[in-house]
Amino acid sequence: MKRQRSEVKRIEKTEKTDGNEPLFVRSMDVASAAVVVQVCYLFNPFGIASCIAMTTSVFHNFLIAAALVAFQSGRPYVSASVLALVSMLGLYPAVLMVPIALHYATAGGNSKTPFDWTAFCSSIAVFCSVWAGALYMIVTLSGSWQFLQSTYLFFVLVPDLTPTVGVFWYFFTEVFDHFRLFFLWVFQLNIFIFVIPLALTLRRSPMMLFHILLILIAVFKPYPSVGDAVVYMALLPIWRHLYLYIRHSFLAACTMAVFAVLAPVMWKLWIQDGSANANFYFAITLAYCTAQIFLLTDLLYAELRHRIHMTHGIRVVDESGTEAKIALS
Amino acid sequence: MRSLTRSDGRPPKWLNGLRRKANALCALLYVAGLIYLACIVWPSFNDRTYFSENALLPGLVDDEFVHRERTNTFAKQLREVVQTRYGKEYGMPHDWLLEQLESIGLEAYAQNFTAFLPGISGAVEGTNIFAVMRAARAPSVESIVVAVPFRSNTLGSIGLALSLASFCREQIYWSKDLIFVFTEHETIGMQAWLSAYHRLPISSLKADPLAAHGGAIQAALALEATDGSTPFSNVDIRYNMINGQLPNLDLVNLLVKMTEKEALVPTLYMQEDPHGQDLYTEKGYWKLAKTSFKGIVAQAFSRADSGLHSVFGAYGVQAVTISPYGKGRTKSQGGWVDIGRLLEGGLRSVNNLLEKFHQSFFFYFLPSTHRYVSIGVFMPAIGLLMGPVLIKALCVWLDLNDEGESSADGDAKAKKETKSESALAVLPLIVIAHSCGALLYFLPYLLFNAQASISTNDQQLFQAIATIAITLPICPWIIQRNLADKDFGVPSMVVLRVVALLELALIVGVTAVLNFGIAVLVAIFVAPISTITIPFRSKIGWALNSMALVLLHPLVACCVALGVYTALTVPVPPTPSWLAQRAFEQTVDVTVGFIRDSLVYQSHLYAFFTLALFPIWMMFWTIVHHRSE
């Protein structure tokens, strides 16, 4: 019995290197990923559309990309500073500080190294101080704290209900005034509450956490736009080694394509022709949010499944030799 | 999420069943779609029309329009003026109209416009005459438009409109302004007036700004009785607008009710309703089906020639055209006064509106004047007809993925590489197909420059378009000859097929919301061919596939459809050569007409055929003519 077991283990060990190539990141993928990411960014229809509309999401995306570059090239303090600038502009990218701080704290991703709390706290401290410094500069330049009303309080209180591609406007047109504060809390907490379980699960994969939080921000911001989706869509090619486990790519891609065509049509029918109403437009933006959520959960599933296969091989066999089924519990 | 994959990441069980029975399921869904379309016309499956907007209070008031003498006088004077001044040419007497409107007591203005159209050398110039009757006791924030085109045979209608204007001027109950518009060059003039009213300039139409406005237009009624002899017996209610838009069903129902109140028979597309007891019989069914079919075709190929109402849609205004015709039996009914009372009743109902038309349906088609089929009832037909396309796309995609996974582990890497490389290799073909469509779309605008004095006539324009449309399909051949076969192996054709099928489903689905008529026609004819378009190995399969695709080429399909329509409607059986010639001439007319409509009325039909359908056709053509060695 014991010998059988040890034999099985030895077979597993040799098989580990043979059939498990698809699990590993290939060097040619790393080289080509740079070009593919660039192409995906430049030719993304949402990116081109937000350029034509001359929105400020171009600046947001640039700063987030700069923060990502600094983050990946091992300069956490630079990354924290740039992220402080983005957060100063948009408030919600502040959650991206969590993966940066985690990366600096775990310093390499090996599950054996202890969690470095000083590194974690120092990076967050740099982030907060740069943000505070920028705010102080604004206060001195503008002379008062009134800018808060037009910037952060605008995001938090959601006073303007112009239809966007998000989920806030439709709901808040219907909510009663005495429940408004309650629902504001619920909706705003949506972004921040999911960070905690995601960070705990992905504490050893800060890049994946960063990517997933980008999608989360794009979905649950009060005033999102399609320009927010450009950065995370461009980053998808870096997860080449996870493609084996992504399940809903077809569905999410088709839904995105349908959204890209149908949303302007529904808008025109509602606003210009007067034939449709808000429900038509909200339905298609809801489908867009659903597609993004599918993408998010797909990435998460693929990452977790990949971890299992990295420890047990591409074909997980139990003691009797039959292939095990891996279930998401 | 749980239902889409099983928890261990494998596809759900029903998906395997779907893939095994894919072909049978596709055929079944398509046939079910056709049967569904045939069924929804049957009265048990649709509803009787009703009024959603309670504020309309249709037909509740007693109509007071009795000015027979005044109407006749106006019409007679107009005829005399036109004949003495213009003779047979029937020019529009602008100053006479201005004078009459001012003598009635309205503010009368003229508006000049100039239109530059391809195929017509020189510019089309004209002048619209319009008069605003201000509401006596209300702020001028809303208005109702009564529009009459100036044509040789609408002189009686203009006389009626003038006398109706004088009648309306004497009443005190108006809460909205009434604007009476007499247009020259029919819908071109109407479009010029509307674009100036809403201050939305159109590039090929230079319209002078209006001297007076009347607020947001709530509804528009256009009158277009041909000068046949009164008494009329029927009133044709036309409601199809450009781009397949339809007015609110309440407005159509209102005019049907007003027509019946005057003891006239309302018709749609000159088809009378089946009589009461015939409604549930076979004879009645064929009448309903014929009206429905005419409705769908009219919505699909909506041009501006059905009446002045057709251009109001783009501005969010509900508009309908009344067209009295027919030979009445008694002299006491069906005269101009009764048409005037019909319009008066309609105007008074619209006058009662508190909000713009929003209650009733905007997406429908009408089998008869008293039955309607709403979007909830006819949209599943598109789902059933497009279901095969989507199922095929899904099955082909899953087969493509399976090819990569089912091979041995050592080959898995190689297979994945070819799959992703072939997916990228197919991208140039997609870009080329869409560029061809874009070229075809922009060609008329390149050839026709409004500012320069270059003008082409119909024939030249059509020849240019046809040449490009017929020679472009050679591109895929050239590309495939020059590049190595490794780049365009069969897997890349399969990826192209998935892309083309998905794009077709997307285009038809989106168009179904905008213009149901064209979507259902495209779904019926294109869907079955697209599912069976594969790179066949055998010669016969290739030949049949090619022939089917050639028939589907937009120009060829247009020619064939017009040929069939001509053959069916001409009383004498025609010779094939005459038929071919007629079909060709009509194709030229239709194509140039689409281009003109897109310039003047912002009609999207030409863009639909060139930017949306032609690239998909090119992709299928590429798939069929793929060389596999």
From TrEMBL, chain A:
Xref: InterPro entries: PIG-U
Transmembrane stretches, start-end: 47-70, 82-105, 117-139, 151-172, 178-200, 250-267, 279-301
The keyword Metal-binding appears for this protein: no
GO CC list: GPI-anchor transamidase complex
Origin superkingdom: Eukaryota
Pathway(s) where this gene product acts: Glycolipid biosynthesis; glycosylphosphatidylinositol-anchor biosynthesis
UniProt keyword Transmembrane present: yes
Record's keyword terms, sorted: Endoplasmic reticulum, GPI-anchor biosynthesis, Membrane, Transmembrane, Transmembrane helix
Subcellular location field: Endoplasmic reticulum membrane
Mode of membrane association: Multi-pass membrane protein
Family: Belongs to the PIGU family.
Name by which UniProt lists this protein: Phosphatidylinositol glycan anchor biosynthesis class U protein
UniProtKB/TrEMBL annotation, chain B:
Domain of life, source organism: Eukaryota
Alphabetized InterPro entries for the sequence: Gaa1
Keywords: Membrane, Transmembrane, Transmembrane helix
Nucleotidyltransferase is among the record's keywords: no
A GO cellular-component term linked to this record: GPI-anchor transamidase complex
GO BP of this protein: attachment of GPI anchor to protein
Transmembrane segments: 21-45, 372-391, 423-448, 460-479, 488-510, 516-536, 548-568, 605-624
Keyword Transmembrane helix appears in the UniProt entry: yes
Name of the protein this chain belongs to: Glycosylphosphatidylinositol anchor attachment 1 protein
